[in-house]
Every structure is written in C-alpha cells, then in structure tokens.
Amino acid sequence: MPRVFATTLGQILAIVAGSSAATLLLFIVLLFYPGAPPSPPWPWQTSYRIVALVDMLSATPDADRVRVLAAAGRARMTAKLVDDAVICKGSTLDTHDLEAALRAELHAGAALTVRTCDARQPTQNLQVLIPLGQRTLEIRTDRNEREPDRFTIPFFGALAFLCVGVAGLSAWAVSRVIRPLRRLSEKADAFGRDITVAPIDEEGPLEIRRAAHAFNRMQERIARSMQSRTRMLAAISHDLRTPLTRMRLQLDAEKKEIERAKLLRDIDLMQTMVSSALAFLTSDAGAEKKEWLDLGALLGTLCDEYAESGAAIRYDGPDQIPFFCKPDAIQRVLTNLIDNAIHFGTEIVVTAALDAGNVVIDVTDDGPGIPADRLQDVIEPFVRLDPARAQRPGSVGLGLSIVDDIVRSHGGTLALINREPSGLIARVTMPASN
User: Fold this and answer.
1) Is 165 helix (H, G, I), strand (E, B) or coil?
2) DSSP 382-434
3) Of 213-217, 246-250, 412-416, minimum mean pLDDT range
C-alpha cells in the first residue's frame, strides 16, 4: 500500500477519495446544522398557519383580537394574547426549524422565540412567542406534520454514486495523464542500456509532450555524439597505423642513421590527426563567451595572411560587419573553410554581406567540386572522398563537421553548393545578433 501512494496516480486518487469523503461529511453536517433551512413538510404547514394568524391579527383592532383568536382556533394549536409570557426552556431541532421558517416569513427580529415546554415529549407543546403591539401572541402547538426524511437510502445512494463516479472518472483521467509519463520513464530506463532506442511518441498534456520532445532531442544528440566518437576512434586508430608502421620499420631496419626528417614528418602527421580529433570533441564545449566582433576586418586579415603565404585569395565585402559571436570559434570556421578551398582550388574568393538580418559568408574555389549525391555526406564526421583523401595526409574528415557544429551553435546553417562549370561554394548563414 505505501508503494501505491508513492506514485502520482495513488496520490491523486487519495486526494480525490479524501475530497469525496469530506463532501459526504459536509452534506451530513449541513443536515444536522440547526441554522440550515428545514426540509418540507415540517415546519412549513404550521408556519403558514401561524403567519396567516399574525397577519390577520395585525389588521384587526386591539379590541377585536380576542374574538378573532377564539374564532380562529384550530385543532392541536391554541393562541392567546398575554402581557408577560413565561418562556419555556426547552430547545430542539424542531424548535430551530420552526423558528427559522417564521423568521423568514415574518421578517421578525430577536424577539421571536420558539421553545418546547415538555422535555420528555419534544414534539408536543411547542411554544411560539411573537410580539404584537403592546402584548405578546403566545401560540401552543404540536409538530403534527410528517417527520422529514433526512437520511434515506436514495439520499445516501446519490451521495455514494457521486463519490464513486468522481473517483472513477478521476482515475480514468489521471491514468491517461500518467500513461505517457510511464512510457517516458520506461524509455529513459531503456536508453540507459541501449542508445538506439526508438523515439518516444509525443502525446498527452502539453507539459508531458514538451518533456517527451526534450527527451527525444537529448536521445538524438547523445546517440549522434556517441556514434561520432566511436567513428572518430576507429578513424584515428586506422590512420595512425601508417605513420607508426613507417616509424617502426625505420627503427627496426639495420641502419646506423635514422632519417630524422621522415620521423619528424610522421610525428607532425600524427599530431595533426590528434589535434583535429580534439578540436572536434571540444567544438561544442560552449566555454567561450560571445562578444562583438568586426567580421569584415577578420575576413580581410585572414585573406591577407593567406595571400602573403602564396595563396591566390581575395576578399570582397564590407570592411566592417558587426557580429555578436564566439570569436575563436568563428575564426576556426573561416580557417577550415579557406584551408579546404586552398587545397582543392587555385583561386579562392571570400565574400560577406548582410542580408535580412543575417550574415552570409561565401568561400568560393575553382576546384573539382563534390558529386551532388555527396554534398550532405561530406559534412558528417570522418566522411572523406577517396580521390581527395589520398592526396591530403593528416586529414580525418573532421573539418566540415567542426564548421557545421560551430555554425549550428550560432543558430546558423552550412550549405555546400557546386559551381558551374567547376568549383564549390561553402556558404555560411548566421543571424547577425543572437
């Protein structure tokens, strides 16, 4: 039982059951409460007769009231005018009912009194005292109407049906809310054992749909990250074999002198591979803070530095482009794109412009381009086009993946577009301020 009440369903059902029980008790208390409106027929018939008598006496002169009272006598009810009435002390539920009804009909104040003069038989010899001019009208009557049925089987049946109906409908409604949560919990537990779990259906209330959507996005990001790191480990392990084998062969060869230049070249190659992998792993770390950067000046400086190194490259665009970004990450994006363009092309043009609140950067080369069916593939980590890969040692296919991750973290997109007749455009589009 404690485990049941520890669940959301059990707690909500406990609240509903408690509320239903409280409602039932409230109904019962209201039935017993003396100040509550009485149930028909008692005391309405008696009160109507008393109200009619009081109205008739109020319209009759004082000298004729005694005669009117004698003529208006009724069985089991007597009335007389007294100067000093002796008030009985008994009080019951019947006297409260009759007094409440008379006050409602006569609009009488505190002077109206209803008591019982026989404690042993509280339903008989009821005393009603009503001020009437200088005297007091004293009425003695019995409760001769039928006893009001306060507690009947239909009454309790209706209350029980109400409580059971509310509890049943609440349980059904709560189960519909809890079901998506239960599935989310099961999926989360299964995801801890296998990252290839299918996405959970986004259903239920808005908050649960949002939680399911966030879980699906988290699952997708973790699965993609794990796959990327697995592929990175496989690619690095494979590519490190070649330089390591060459170095071992040199050391195992029976030569007194080791070719230092070849060893250094292999070490540089291995260092480049490891650096690329680390750059990819830390590209989405998010440690760098955003700040304002003059993107036009940065592009012009980079192009000048590459041109001084012998590359045929130029920058076409505004000298000043204010851009709110992570400066080091954006510089990594630009250098990766320019390095790719220089490797595959002979003439490179870098352009930048502001378009509808977005910064658009194009890095254009005149190289062989990329097959149309591979334009999206090369953005994925460790994907390398075989002809180009053989001519570019040290590359593990992470440059464009790093660019894509950084651009996405700035709310932008990376697109690769083939040129006619040859060449490639690497287009980066990012919001100017985000």
Assistant:
1) helix
2) T---HHHHHTSTT--S-HHHHHHHHHHHTT-EEEEEE-SSS-EEEEEEEES--
3) 246-250
pTM: 0.47
Cα atoms found within 13 Å of the Cα of residue 303, Cβ hemisphere only: 22
Nearest to 343 by CA among 299, 408, 278, 392: 392
Domain spanning 288-431: CATH 3.30.565.10? yes
Binning pLDDT at 50, 70 and 90, where does residue 434 land?
Answer: low
Q: Determine the Cα–Cα distance for residues 262 and 247; give it in Å rounded to an integer.
A: 8
Residue 324's DSSP bridge partners are 292
What is the pairing mode between strands 358-365 and 347-355?
antiparallel
Q: What is the 3-state secondary structure (H, E, C) of 51-84?
A: HHHHHHHHCCCHHHHHHHHHHCCECCEEEEEECC
pLDDT at 425 over 50: yes
CATH of 44-141 among 3.10.20.90, 3.20.20.140, 3.30.70.1320, 3.30.450.300: 3.30.450.300
| Alpha carbons 414 and 156: distance in angstroms, whole number | 71
Cis peptide before 43 (omega within 30 of 0): yes
For residue 360, what are its two tokens? Answer: 């658009």
Per residue in 322-355, pLDDT (tens digit) is 999 888 889 888 988 998 899 888 999 999 999 8
Q: For residues 163 and 20, is the Cβ–Cβ distance under 8 A?
A: yes
Spans of all domains in the chain? 2-34+150-191, 44-141, 195-282, 288-431
pLDDT value at position 433? 74
Cis peptide bond N-terminal to 431, omega within 30: no
Q: Which residues pair with 293 in a beta bridge?
A: 323
